């Protein structure tokens, strides 16, 4: 069996080594534009170029080295008709839980404000927030959102969650579909965006929807930047309606040097690191799925192109 490997960032040798360790019987072929390649059974890639698409028509399935699929689905009809399989959690859920819990606790315990006070050598206890009034709204109830929801519940936050299809989760106020979005947003003191970027979610969080959040609410975005209208968010942060934002993802990455977010002290920025692909977990998961496919069994995390995730 041959597996075609590609990463747009060129950091491919560690993947070759990992596959050699986990699937020693398999030959890996690194795809390089313009070079001839032996036919492969599967492709494992991240952020492909248009030139690679042709090659994908000949594989049994395409595996992604991440959980998001927007960078591949943007090719639309140019994509060959083979199953696309993304990573399902593979160690990313725990990282998301760490990141989101840290940000929510920072707002709830006012650590960011204490940091400012300490810098000014000020000893000044601030009134504590009432947890019962500090509801966290999680957008998305997928593989990465569920550990986040569990962790927030563990800390005793009232949790509400919104998904496309109706769900029931113990102790969580569940909302679904466009018709329940406004009600979901109205009750949130912190909004956590964990949605995939699709035609339905692009710029979903614009001025009108963000204005439905409680006065002084905070936003945490760990999924895709283009789901938030950045111009509208900045205006709402400057007006004080949104008290703070913790952003790991942006409409354009890397965030350009002159972007006004850099200058806004109420916006915290990290460089798309909230959940990194853990190579050993990823390769083990892909190997197990290839084995299942070879035995004619179904696998999880097959992307639905019509839904866009
Ligand atoms: P997932 O398992 O596919 O879950 C997606 C969730 O979003 C589902 O609950 C789905 O609802 C909901 N959803 C999708 N479209 C919706 C809509 N139009 N309205 C309401 N709900 C909608 O995805 P995941 O594995 O949790 O990953 C989520 C995203 O995280 C990825 O797509 C990726 O963009 C991002 N990500 C970011 C990083 C990072 O480092 N920043 C790392 C990994 C992933 P249903 O349950 O009803 O289908």
Automatic annotation (TrEMBL):
Keyword Oxidoreductase: yes
InterPro entries named in the record: D-isomer_DH_CS, D-isomer_DH_NAD-bd, NAD(P)-bd_dom_sf
Gene3D superfamilies registered for this protein in UniProt: NAD(P)-binding Rossmann-like Domain
Domain D-isomer specific 2-hydroxyacid dehydrogenase NAD-binding: 103-274
Domain of life: Bacteria
Keyword check for NAD: yes
Keywords: NAD, Oxidoreductase
Protein name: Glyoxylate/hydroxypyruvate reductase A
Species for this entry: Massilia solisilvae
């Amino acid at each position: 069996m041959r597996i075609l490997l590609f990463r747009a960032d060129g950091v491919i040798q560690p993947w070759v080594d990992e596959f050699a360790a986990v699937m020693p019987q398999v030959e890996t072929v690194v795809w390089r534009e313009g070079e001839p390649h032996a036919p492969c059974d599967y492709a494992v890639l991240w952020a492909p170029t248009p030139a690679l698409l042709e090659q994908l028509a000949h594989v049994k399935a395409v595996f992604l080295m991440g959980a998001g699929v927007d960078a591949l689905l943007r090719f639309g009809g140019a994509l060959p008709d083979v199953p696309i399989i993304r990573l399902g959690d593979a160690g990313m859920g725990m990282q998301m839980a760490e990141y989101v819990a840290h940000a929510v606790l920072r707002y709830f315990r006012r650590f960011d404000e204490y940091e400012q006070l300490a810098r000014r050598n000020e000893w000044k206890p601030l009134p504590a927030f009432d947890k019962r009034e500090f509801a966290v709204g999680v957008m998305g109830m997928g593989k990465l959102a569920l550990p986040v929801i569990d962790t927030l519940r563990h800390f005793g936050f009232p949790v509400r969650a919104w998904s496309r299809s109706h769900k029931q989760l113990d102790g969580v106020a569940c909302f679904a579909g466009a018709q329940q979005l406004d009600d979901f947003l109205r009750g949130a003191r912190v909004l956590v965006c964990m949605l995939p970027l699709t035609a339905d979610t692009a710029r979903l969080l614009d001025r009108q929807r963000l204005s439905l959040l409680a006065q002084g609410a905070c936003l945490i975005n760990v999924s895709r930047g283009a789901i938030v209208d950045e111009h509208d968010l900045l205006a709402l942060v400057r007006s004080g309606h949104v008290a703070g934002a913790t952003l790991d993802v942006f409409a354009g990455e890397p965030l350009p040097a002159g972007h006004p977010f850099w200058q806004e002290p109420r916006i915290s920025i990290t460089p798309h690191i909230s959940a990194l692909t853990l190579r050993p977990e990823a390769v083990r998961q892909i190997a197990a799925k290839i084995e299942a496919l070879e035995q004619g069994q179904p696998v999880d995390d097959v992307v639905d192109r019509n839904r866009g995730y």
